[in-house]
Amino acid sequence: MIGCAVAYELQKAGVKVVLLERGTIGQESSSAAAGMLAPNAEADQDDEFLRLCLKGRALFPQYLEELEERTSQRVEWRQSGLLRVPGSEEEASVLARRYQWQKEAGIRIQWISPEEIRELEPHLKPTTRHALYLPDEANLDNAQLTRVLALAARSRGAEIREHEEVRAPILDQRRVLGVTSTVGAYYSGTTIYAAGAWTTRICPTEETSIPVIPVRGQMLALRAEHPLISRIIYSRDGYLVPRSNGEILVGATVEWAGFDKRNTAGALERLLQAAVNLAPELESATFTRAWAGLRPGTPDTLPILGPDPFWQGLIHATGHYRNGILLSGITAKLTAELVVQGRTSFPLEAFSPDRFHVSARTQSTTR
What we know:
- This protein is of the alpha+beta class.
- It folds into three domains: 2-71 and 142-210 and 299-366, FAD/NAD(P)-binding domain, CATH 3.50.50; 82-133, no CATH class; 213-297, D-Amino Acid Oxidase, subunit A, domain 2 (D-Amino Acid Oxidase, Chain A, domain 2).
- Helices cover 31% and strands 24% of the residues.
- The strands form five sheets. Strands 5-6-4-14-15-16-13-17 form an eight-stranded mixed beta sheet, with helices on both faces.
- Helix 1 crosses helix 8 and helix 3 crosses helix 6.
- Mean pLDDT is 94; it is low at 359-367.
């Protein structure tokens, strides 16, 4: 998805793009996610990352209208909020503190009573605890969005070459001149790595590689006889996301399992239990499907955005971990600004790949 979004923005700016995709568009984490646009649900502090995420979410209503006008394809989208339900008194205290600082930061947030929870979502398991209600959180169909972004990029003139895997960068001194693929060589003034969990495999050298780690996420879908929830329900053990086709998505595990995309019995059992704990009527729901994806994780869980500190002509747009859908549009806009203008409208220092290589860069400079 990130690659398609970047291609679309660059073509809008008049930059010719060739996008290489190792498989088919959307076959990896772009389609495996739940499509949540929920920057506040897990935020523990008001920092640059939260501000980037908020900008990313705010962009979507107009962004989706623009894509629909361009492609005549509508992406399912609903901004019906998120309910964060605590599973213990200790967690309730954590959420109460989160409510205080987010309210002071100007974020729309409510600390609602058990009675108000029942009014919003009558099919949830009754509770005696308060919960967080975040009315601006949203969700969309991420698989649809990926397809529409690819269509929009192509309509602008981007060349998207599927089933063509990047093998290595083409290097000259300290400059990246392009890449070689399973088909041939491509030369360009700027090369952008948006390879997700596979980024580290195509870095120029091991010493200057970017630490992107595959993090498996397993999910499943259920279908109840009648609608049970109308918004995202989020807890420490899992979440529920309603879709317009009647499915309820249940997610998600966080596992360091390398490039293994299997579904496992234990993980699915825990997800099912988490779903039933939130909404007991889901015990009789129909199990429709299960899947897994590989998130591009980083050591500090922040994305990697901006110019490579060692290699001229190389820009990174990767490492989005659990926020790739949310940050797809804003990443694309900022990356296009960097290519076209040489600067961005939002500071990227906190997300620079340079943060992983300060000591190595110092040693290289002093040699």
